[in-house]
Specification:
The complex is a heterodimer of chains A (322) and B (277). In chain A, 69% of the residues lie in helices and 1% in strands. Chain A is mainly α. Chain A folds into two domains: 60 residues, no CATH class; 233 residues, MetI-like fold (Orthogonal Bundle), CATH 1.10.3720. The longest helix of chain A is centred in the first third of the chain and has 38 residues. Chain A starts with 14 loop residues before the first helix and ends in an 8-residue tail after the last helix. Helix content of chain B is 73%, strand content 0%. Classes of the chains: A mainly alpha (322), B mainly alpha (277).
């Protein structure tokens, strides 16, 4: 570094220059950094204001209004919330349906992803092929997946029931035509996409230190014990990540229901996001939909907070020591 | 592992992998085989496993039913513009958050995290009314323009990556008189190619698969994307399974092809987006 550069406004490592100019330079540099920082962050700052901050405020306001997006919003106080909680049976039904998916679909999916990841985390020939095959369904377009499964799940001529009959099942399920089986049908379809979560587990599994496994092996731990006391704790941060992401996603379950069932049969697949969408864009009750959106936000937040709070007890961070 | 696995346990593992593999592959097989079945074999009982003859002309027939070529072009246009917008804007913002020290940047970083847990439904109605008052409903603008203002998740991903690039490199460029923009373009972005490729790839697939956006904003059939076009196709031709499967195959194929060409980027992406932040 030559001395001339010291006055050129560079962040010097030269001690003499730094002390020499310290009374003036930091503020100059800080101002330039602030300007550049804001300039480069401008797309997000504008985008956040227009597409996030304003809509959040507006949606909160709309939730206290009657609003059809044609005439201006009309203040109605807590009416929307009162209707939602006391009069709209479908609101409760949709919330219940959604919680059903969270309670059953989510854990089943998490376990399946983990199981597949364990299966794929072996050193065997042809593993790249298996990984590709297991992963592909998860990136297949949802609309295409939905249409394909509509066909597979057809109660009379769908492949699934045909195979079940071949296996000797006498009373095959009606799947999407039977309120008792419609949600299990969607969960089954979701399992086909378990490869999405699998890759994340797989990445984490490959980070489990071999030395730890060797140590457990030398101590005479069986396969099950190694899984329970080594693999599972090492994976717990990733399980938490997949759980939280899955939770947020489950509460917004929409496209599959919209394409496959439209909410039927007997409202058994009217999920929260579908009900909200229909109120907003079918009935143009935008105020009511906004109130529902805020309720959804609070429910999601509460569930996430609950999970995070519980995580202190079951998530192990290797970096934090014992 | 140090110990060798017995031949039996290896064989057992393969057996399980193959069985599960068949379960995963079977829907794909049924998708493609139904797509090329002659009509009378589609509903045949017991099911026809191998279509005979293979009716490749189901694809052109499906393309005649609905302007799928048009839908594909529409989707591609939206995808490419969204990728350009997202990569550009996210790169700029990530640079600001990772490489420039300024007051308030931590607050901006927090805003990213907050947006990631915010359900899209909260902003859905007002965002719709914004585009309505701009008279953008029925155009592709609402699907494209927001991508030029960054995406919280991808900014986060790129920021994490930019932080790992040694500071000495940009300091050296700065001493050579490079502006911050030049440093981003000539030093950071070339080094961040894998991360940028991941962002581009995920954005492309996200836009290709997006259903809610086109459902909300497109109402002219001439502008339909594949996802909305396909959904409308179902509601009109519900039971014509070979046509539906042909159309779904057409929609899925590009994603599969992209996956085979960009497998490494996918896997990198998962490790990057993860958890390691």
């Amino acid at each position: 570094m030559t001395t001339e550069h010291g006055t050129g406004g560079t962040v010097g490592t030269n001690g003499i220059h730094e002390s020499h100019l310290s009374h003036r330079r930091p503020s100059c540099q800080a101002r330039r950094d602030l300007r550049n920082g804001l300039l480069f962050a401008a797309p997000w700052l504008i985008g956040f204001t227009v597409f996030i901050a304003y809509p959040i405020a507006a949606s909160l306001y709309f939730s206290f209004c009657e609003y059809d997006a044609i005439r201006g919003p009309k203040w109605v106080g807590l009416d929307n919330y009162r209707t939602m909680l006391l009069e709209d049976d479908l609101f409760w039904k949709s919330l219940w349906n959604t919680l059903d998916m969270v309670a059953f679909g989510l854990p089943v999916g998490l376990v399946a992803s983990l199981g597949i990841a364990l299966l794929l985390n072996q050193r065997l020939r042809g593993m790249a092929f298996y990984r590709t095959l297991y992963y592909l369904p998860s990136i297949t377009p949802i609309v295409a997946t939905s249409i394909l499964w509509l066909w597979l799940l057809n109660p009379q001529i769908g492949l699934i029931n045909v195979l079940l009959q071949k296996l000797g099942v006498a009373n095959v399920p009606g799947w999407l035509t039977d309120p008792a089986w419609s949600k299990p049908a969607l969960i089954l379809m979701g399992l086909w996409g378990a490869g999405g979560g699998m890759v994340i587990y797989l990445a984490a599994l490959q980070d489990v230190p071999e030395a730890l496994m060797e140590a457990a092996l030398l101590d005479g731990a069986g396969a099950l014990q190694r899984f329970r006391h080594v693999t599972l704790p090492m994976l717990s941060p990733v399980i938490l990540f997949n759980l939280v992401m899955g939770l947020i996603g489950s509460f917004q379950y929409f496209t599959q229901a919209y394409v496959m069932t439209g909410g039927g049969p007997q409202d058994s697949t009217v999920f929260y996001a579908l009900h909200l969408f229909n109120r907003a864009f079918l009935d143009f009750r935008m105020g009511y939909a906004s109130a529902m959106a805020w309720a959804l936000f609070l429910i999601t937040l509460a569930c996430t907070a609950l999970v995070l709070r519980s995580s202190a007890r079951w998530v192990y961070y290797a970096g934090e020591g014992a | 592992m140090l110990h060798r696995r017995s031949a039996l346990s290896v064989a057992l593992s393969h057996a399980v992998l193959i069985c599960v593999g068949i379960l995963f592959a079977l829907p794909f097989y049924w998708l493609v085989s139904t797509a090329v079945k002659p009509d009378e074999q589609v509903l045949a009982m017991p099911p026809v496993w191998i279509p005979r003859p293979v009716r490749w002309d189901n694809f052109p027939r499906a393309l005649q039913y609905v302007p799928f070529l048009q839908y594909t072009l529409n989707t591609l246009k939206i995808c490419l513009l969204t990728v350009v917008g997202t990569v550009l804007s996210c790169s700029l913002v990530a640079y600001s958050l990772a490489r420039i020290k300024w007051r308030g940047r931590n607050l901006v970083f927090l805003s990213l995290l907050a947006v990631m847990i915010l359900p899209g439904q909260v902003t859905m109605v007002p965002t719709f009314t914004i585009f309505k008052s701009l008279h953008w409903i029925g155009t592709i603008l609402p699907l494209i323009v927001p991508s030029f203002f960054g995406n919280a998740f991808f900014i986060f991903l790129l920021r994490q990556f930019y932080m790992t690039i040694p500071g000495e490199l940009s300091d050296a460029a700065r001493m050579d008189g490079c502006s911050e923009g030049a440093i981003l373009m000539r030093v950071i972005m070339p080094l961040a190619k894998p991360a940028l490729a991941t962002v581009g790839l995920f954005t492309f697939i996200g836009a290709w698969n997006d259903f809610l956006g086109p459902l909300l904003y497109l109402n002219d059939e001439a502008q339909y994307t594949l996802s909305i076009g396909l959904q409308r196709f179902v509601s009109q031709h519900g039971a014509e399974w070979s046509m539906l499967m042909a159309a779904s195959t057409v929609m899925t194929l590009p994603i599969v092809v992209i996956f085979f060409f960009a497998q490494r980027t996918f896997i990198q992406g998962v490790t990057l987006t993860g958890i390691k932040g």
